[in-house]
Amino acid sequence: MIWDTIHTIFHNPLFVKYGLVGLFFNGMFSSFIPIPTEITTSTLLLGGARPFYVFLALTIGSIIGGYIAYYLGYNGRLIGKFRKSTPKYEQKSVSMMTKYGWYTIIFFSPWIPIIGDIASIIAGTKKYDIIKYSIAMTTGKTVKSIAIVFFSVHFVHWLFRILH
After folding, report:
1. Among candidates 162, 153, 126, which has minimal Cα distance to 54?
2. CA-CA distance, 113 to 111, in Å (whole number)?
3. Which of 49, 61, 130, 145 fits a disulfide with 27 by CB distance 3.0 to 4.6 angstroms?
4. Residue-number span of the structural domain to which 157 is assigned
5. Above 70 in pLDDT, residue 164?
6. The total number of structural domains that make up the chain
7. pLDDT tens-digit profile of 33-46?
């Protein structure tokens, strides 16, 4: 019964059926919409995809998504409705960025649910320096991609062998 549930979760996500291209878009969209990449990554690795290619697809998609999110914020006209619907999260993100520093929050934003998803948009809205943003964002997303692939290769494979 547990195996059937896990099997269903890992084999029916939207992006999995498109392989590495799906993972690329999953990584891209997850930069500004809370869509987790961990299931797609784990499923592709369990299906035999090479870890290096999974890492590349996830990292490049995530970085491009980070720039799209920054641009959405920078070009405020595109994000007007979003800002009206999420003032609580925006205020919380800005206060975290002020308290801990923009660089730190942008670096860790891929790991922070919801608030992290809008950190790049807010950085664009506040016209945060694009060079500093690029360094923090690409470093943070690369580190997260390494961690997800490493965890998926080692722990998820082990877990599936035990459960199967």
Report:
1. 153
2. 6
3. 61
4. 2-163
5. no
6. 1
7. 878 888 889 889 98
